[in-house]
Amino acid sequence: MIFVKNSDQIKQMKLAGRITGEALALGGEMVREGISTYEIDEKIRRYIEKCGARPSFLHYGGFPASACISINDEVIHGIPSRRRILHEGDIVKIDVGAFIGGFHGDSANTFPVGKVSEEALRLIEVTKESFERGVAAAAVEGARLGDVGAAIDGHVRSFGYSTVKKYVGHGVGHDLHEEPNVPNYGTPGRGIRLCRGMVIAIEPMVNVGTASVLEQPDGWTVLTADGSLSAHYEHTVALTEDGPLLLTKI
């Protein structure tokens, strides 16, 4: 069932979104050579709790940390660790959620560590642009989920990259993951019709090489099947009478 939010509920969701966005920005500011992903995660956790919220990801399905932090060919769900040290040239995906007032926020971004390759920079930019294409498609009256996915995937493929198919976006609200699923690929004019009051996480995951991925024995970390770089970009988006509203953008 899709839970459509009224204007008051969307206003309440802005708080969770703001805390999520601020926590993600704080994590991004910490990205530098020599720091561990554990240190970044701890800073994010402390900030979210300082704001009176709780980290959405901590213990969610057994996940042991407050943020998913994934490096290079790790697509999503990387587990922070004192042993995972960032190095010059890495790209780092940080995915954060915060829960307060009965609602969640969910947002992700990809950050370069120092000087990275031109390909890595282009991948990061294309991934963000594909998100923007998806939001623009969602803004069209009468749009369907297939329009959003097709806009994302079409942009990604125009650069020779691939969109991860196995993992998708989702609804956000009282639960971190609600209906509907929001694929980053699709057929224009197909799928659920979007309507005012829907709140969804649009989150393209883009690989330089194959779209295929491999789940690791830890039960969480997902890698590209060919070892190629991957980038991730996400905001919680409310569909309002005034158009899409990015609740997690600060």
How would a crystallographer describe the biggest sheet? 5 strands, antiparallel
**What proportion of the residues form beta strands (DSSP E)?**
25-35%
Largest beta sheet: what is the strand line-up?
8-7-9-14-15
Q: Report the structural category.
A: alpha+beta
Count of alpha/pi helices: 4
Q: Distance between the terminal alpha carbons, to the nearest Å?
A: 30 Å
- Global mean pLDDT: 98
Please mark out the parts with pLDDT under 50 across 5 or more consecutive residues, or reply none: none
User: What's the overall geometry?
Assistant: globular
Query: Element order, helices and strands?
Result: HHEEEEEHHEEEEEEEEEE
Radius of gyration: 17 Å
Could you explain how this protein is built, in words?
The protein is built from four helices and 15 strands. The protein has 250 residues and is an alpha+beta fold. It has a five-stranded antiparallel beta sheet, sandwiched between helices. Strands 1, 2, 4 and 5 form a four-stranded antiparallel beta sheet that branches. The radius of gyration is 17 Å and the shape is globular. The protein starts with 6 loop residues before the first helix and ends with a strand. The mean pLDDT is 98.
Structure keywords:
250 residues; alpha+beta; five-stranded antiparallel beta sheet; four-stranded antiparallel beta sheet; 4 helices; 26% strand; globular
Can you give me a brief rundown of this structure?
With 250 residues, the protein is of the alpha+beta class. It has four helices and 15 strands.
